[in-house]
Amino acid sequence: MPNIKSAKKRVKVTEVKNARNKALKSNLKTLIKNADAAIAENSGNKDAQVKLAIKRIDQACAKGLLHKNTAARKKSSLACKLNKVG
């Protein structure tokens, strides 16, 4: 545990940010899984699921949770899967 006041504060701030980032990444992974499942089942709401997942990927990229190339790869993968289904 740090002794300096500012270092103690950084520890607290880092814990809060880590918790927030972990929750956002977990939610993002869940949305991507839901979109993949909707595409695999060829359900009626697959377009909406993919659109929501892509939106959240963009938001995560804007907040710095994902690298821009990672975000582009995930979006491209979803779009390819959706286009193969038709």
TrEMBL record:
Originating organism: Acetanaerobacterium elongatum
Ribosomal protein recorded as keyword: yes
GO cellular component: cytosol; small ribosomal subunit
Chain's role: Binds directly to 16S ribosomal RNA.
GO MF annotations, alphabetized: small ribosomal subunit rRNA binding; structural constituent of ribosome
Protein name: Small ribosomal subunit protein bS20
Family: Belongs to the bacterial ribosomal protein bS20 family.
Gene Ontology biological-process annotations: translation
Family annotation (InterPro entries): Ribosomal_bS20, Ribosomal_bS20_sf
